[in-house]
Design a protein that fits this description.
By secondary structure, this protein is mainly α. It has a domain of 132 residues. It has 23 helices and no strands. α6 runs parallel beside α8, α7 runs antiparallel to α8 and α9 packs antiparallel against α10. The longest helix is centred in the C-terminal third of the chain and has 117 residues.
Length: 567
């Protein structure tokens, strides 16, 4: 009966929790909102009370955006999921989501999607005091945002987010001057109206810088002014704000208010399960505060809590110094004196409790060490996996670049071969036309010879042709010779345009007769053929060739025919 009742109770609990999760997931379905930003605001509100429901909503949204092939929104969802895990100090889950987002953005070649990933990676590496790696990722985000802003692919707020992250990180590393430079740059790129929530975060960071520079009252006034806004809109962020207000009061010699705000910060962290990774730092400051008041018991208690949380969250980052160890020793001495005043029976009971506590602590230490060891092994496994994946991606890119270069070289080679073929065909066509022109000129010469013979016979004849008609025929033959030469010259120029252009450019003082002679030399006609075509004697042709050589500046060893052929 008891088993049946227990099973029924377990079933009801499971059914109720499953129904509630489904209802939350349905209410937070991203497709039911007008924009990603509107949906994110609602999820962050749910996260403050039900982190598990927020995780369900993030996973659902990621799968939805992947199905829609919306890479930017999918990456932003993974980044916000990582931030959610970070608030709960689940850094391994946050780290895995960021690397998943980075590979997704890289595969899609989406530079805009890489920016928030680089920013969050830089911030998480800064938590582990890996300054060089943190700044490397943040600088990469800044370079990409400047490039995309220049290309008008992103707005000013993206660049401002990079400056803000760099300013916060440099403040974490106690480099206040550089932090102030980057925070001042934010004002150039954000809307300064009170409606813009980024203004309040920027004022918070500036107050932190003022605290570091000793401007405690100025920092306190600024933080108290913005505290109502955070209480209304981002109550979880008050973990950091209250701690920083406590720092200001402590520096202003008001430990009572400092202690109050430190405890407020811890309570808000517990209430909203947010920024729990920052709680060890608050306990460290409380320990210093109690030490200054000589409240060794509370100082040791705060120190112990800080060490436990610091080992749980950050392992090797715990800070153990001599003064804190002395507090621990004094506390033990005080406890020993109290034990001596108790009855013997009380002492026996306390010793038994101490043994039990020791065993519990040993089990806890072994468990923590085991978890840390497993975490290190898993971290190394993931890092090796990422390294191999990066190497494969790099090798794939190099192969693609190599194939692209080879294809480009082949196209250039084919283009050069095609150009050479076209030039060769043009030269062959030019040579063919010149041959046709030479043949035509020889036929003209033969025609002229026949006409000349006919002209001589007609001039000497005493037939029935009248003298007036005979002179008309002779004159027609002479005009025909002149027309033949003009037709020849026109055809030659149409075929050898470049020849005439080069000849006129290099030797502009050549006469028309010199140009005619060059044209006949270009056709490789003999002196006899030139004489007949020009209607002059062979001796005149030789004389004209001699004069042409002088105008061209040719020495005796250079052939006129070869020289003209090369033009």
């Amino acid at each position: 009966m008891k088993n049946t009742t227990r099973q029924l109770l377990l079933f009801l609990v499971f059914f109720y929790s499953h129904t509630l999760s489904a209802q939350v997931e349905s209410n937070l379905a991203v497709e039911n909102f007008n924009s990603f930003e509107e949906w994110l605001v609602q999820v962050n509100l749910v996260r403050l009370e039900k982190p598990d429901s927020a995780v369900l909503a993030f996973n659902y949204a990621y799968n939805y955006f992947i199905e829609k092939k919306d890479t930017l929104s999918a990456v932003n969802t993974l980044v916000e999921m990582a931030i959610n895990y970070g608030h709960q100090a689940e850094y391994q889950a946050a780290y895995d989501n960021l690397w998943k987002a980075l590979f997704l953005a890289d595969e899609a070649q989406n530079d805009q999607a890489k920016i928030p990933v680089y920013i969050q990676l830089g911030r998480y590496y800064s938590f582990y005091k890996r300054q060089e790696t943190a700044l490397k990722y943040l600088e990469q985000a800044l370079i990409l945002s400047k490039k995309l802003l220049k290309e008008e692919k992103v707005g000013n707020e993206v660049l401002a987010s990079c400056y803000y992250a760099l300013g916060s990180t440099y403040r974490d590393f106690n480099k206040d001057e550089k932090s102030k430079v980057y925070l001042d740059s934010c004002y150039l790129y954000i809307d300064l109206s009170p409606k813009n929530e980024n203004v309040y975060y920027l004022k918070f960071e500036e107050a932190g810088v003022n605290n570091s520079q000793g401007k405690y009252q100025e920092a306190l006034d600024s933080m108290l002014a913005i505290q109502p806004w955070f209480e209304k809109n981002r109550p979880d962020f008050q973990v950091l704000l209250m701690a920083q207000i406590g720092d200001s009061y402590l520096a202003l010699k008001n430990p009572t208010k400092a202690e109050f705000y430190y405890h407020q910060s811890i309570n808000i962290s517990k209430q909203y399960k947010s920024h729990i990774d920052f709680v060890p730092t608050i306990y460290q400051r409380l320990s210093d505060l109690y030490l200054s008041k000589k409240d060794y018991k509370n100082a040791f208690s705060s120190l112990k809590k800080e060490q436990e949380l610091d080992a749980l969250f950050f392992d090797s980052r715990s800070k153990n110094n001599l003064s804190l160890l002395e507090i621990k020793d004094e506390f033990r001495s005080e406890k020993q004196k109290q034990k001596q005043l108790n009855q013997e029976q009380r002492i026996a009971n306390l010793e038994q409790e101490e043994r039990l506590n020791f065993m519990e602590n040993m089990v806890l230490v072994v468990l923590i060490v085991s978890l840390i060891f497993i975490g290190i092994l898993y971290f190394n496994h993931i890092r090796r996996k990422h390294k191999v994946e990066k190497a494969l991606i790099k090798k794939k890119r190099e192969l693609e670049v190599k194939q692209t270069n080879e294809l480009r070289e082949l196209e250039i080679q084919q283009a050069n071969e095609l150009r050479e073929m076209e030039i060769q065909q043009a030269n062959e066509l030019l040579e063919l036309k010149n041959k046709e022109l030479a043949t035509s000129s020889l036929k003209l010469i033969e025609k002229d010879e026949v006409l000349a013979t006919l002209k001589d016979r007609l001039s000497q004849g005493n037939g029935d042709i009248k003298a007036h008609d005979l002179k008309k025929i002779v004159r027609s033959i002479s005009n025909s010779n002149a027309q033949n030469w003009e037709e020849f010259e026109a055809r030659f120029m149409s075929v050898n345009k470049e020849f005439y252009i080069k000849l006129n450019d290099r030797y502009p003082k050549l006469s028309r007769g010199d140009q005619k002679l060059c044209a006949l030399v270009k056709l490789n006609l003999s002196s006899k053929e030139m004489a007949k075509l020009l209607g002059i004697s062979i001796e005149s042709v030789h004389t004209n060739r001699y004069r042409l050589r002088k105008k061209l500046g040719l020495v005796r060893e250079v052939s006129l025919t070869e020289f003209v052929a090369k033009l």
